[in-house]
Fold each of these.
Amino acid sequence: MSVTVRSIIIAALLSIAAALLYRYSSSTGKLSADEINERFPSFVATNFTAELYNEQGLLNYSIFAKDVSFYQSRDLIQANYLAGFYYDHEDLVNQPGRGWQIIADQGEIVFDTYAKLTGNVHVQPNFATSPIEEVVTPYVYFDLPQNIISSPETITVRGRNFVNSGANYEIDLNQDTFVIKDQPHVVYYPES
């Protein structure tokens, strides 16, 4: 066999091998549409702002976040460096715009299931007559169907004449109860 024939045979074998490798590699790296929907967000936003209004056209919630990702397949929203405002419209005559401000490093919500806030969670009222001035905790879990807020982490609630702290707390919004299950500590100051 001459050198030319051997070269042609080797070139043909290498071409076949290269074509097979190309064909194999192009089919293994592809993701299905379901895998793409599960792994990657449906949309991503930076400097996100949202406002939600009630049936009467009054502003109920304002939400601001540095980064937001929405996963449609899981009904999941993830946000970084967020601030939210809740507006209570029960007493529009005496306290218009009454509500609460919530700030956290990270947040996650699955529609109609739960909401989670982590990292430097601060809650403050935006009205002067509130008995609570500030709530600080590193983590909050809100069970939306049960209407219960809980966390195994520490919490500090400051008011005009008290400081309440502890860990492993539960707030039942149905019963209007707040229970600290571990290391409860309360300090009351005389009113001046």
Amino acid sequence: MAILNAKYIAELEEYLKSGNLEEDFKWSVEERRGEILEFLEKLMDLGELADETATHIIFKGQLGALMGMPDEKAEPEQPSPAVEQGASMELPRRD
């Protein structure tokens, strides 16, 4: 599975917007509620990381250019194991 999965993001967005996640939480046992809350916490952490990453990608080298520093021509880093393995998260299951 590719790490950039627009279909999965769209499904997750629909799951959240539809109210189904809230309904699942409402009718779940305590253990499952904890899992849902952990999932949402991880999702929020990933949102912050995505924001930081996008900012870095967009503005990489911009500050140096403004300060008159030479452009960095470093070789790209090796992909992380998660990228190589196609890491993904699963949608919470309905009980």
